[in-house]
Amino acid sequence: MITHAGHRRVPAQGARTPGERRADRAALHAFRSRRVRIGALAALLLTAASVIAAIDVLAAMFGASLHVIAYRGLLDVRWDGWEVRAISGGLVLVGLVFLLAGLLPGRSRVVPLHGRVPDVVMGVSRRGLCRAVARAAGDAAGVARVRRVRLRPRRVTIVAETPVSDPRDLEDGVADAVRGTLERIGPLRPRTVKVRMKRKEI
Predict the structure, then answer these.
(1) Cα separation of 118 and 20, whole Å?
(2) pLDDT at 9
(3) CA-to-CA distance for 123 and 71, rounded, in angstroms?
(4) Where are the domains of the chain?
(5) Which member of 31, 46, 61, 154 lies 3.0 to 4.6 Å from 110 by CB, making a disulfide possible if both were Cys?
(6) Mean pLDDT (whole number) for 82-92
(7) CATH domain 2-31+110-199 topology
(8) What is the pTM of this model?
(9) Which of 159, 154, 144 is nearest to 196 (CA)?
(10) How does pLDDT run across 181-200, given as a tens digit for each residue?
């Protein structure tokens, strides 16, 4: 069963005041994924290329024969060969990876929350939000144990166990409990709630 959550606590986007909308944008920006690892890799590669180029330029300025890159050997390379094409394709692929990493948003460890003023941003860790959802689902009537909570950008999926022979009627209660928790916490992006109840083997 799938239901919607995140709409009761916060009014529709058009009904929010300009200050609240600025607060939402500030929270989204503050907790945006920084892509630290891939950014560090790109910086390392650019630094290495810059150092190699600087060594060759300084060596040429002082009349030295030091060449980190064998330029004369490049003259003998067949530029229409498969080796050159493979290397060129690999470089293009690496460039596309870096480009997509810069354009596409990553998964942040913190879920931004609705705020009222731009100077105060609020967020909750993904693990903390999953624990809150698990507690809400576990406290619902008929739930023996929560197996798994999966948090996606637009959906929360809960898999729970119940001793009840026909668990389909319990899904509404679990979804309402989870929806109420999400509305109290107030994540910036509304999420649908999907509940899967499984019969507990005795």
Answers:
(1) 7
(2) 41
(3) 53
(4) 2-31+110-199, 36-103
(5) 31
(6) 83
(7) Alpha-Beta Plaits (3.30.70)
(8) 0.61
(9) 159
(10) 999 998 988 899 999 988 77
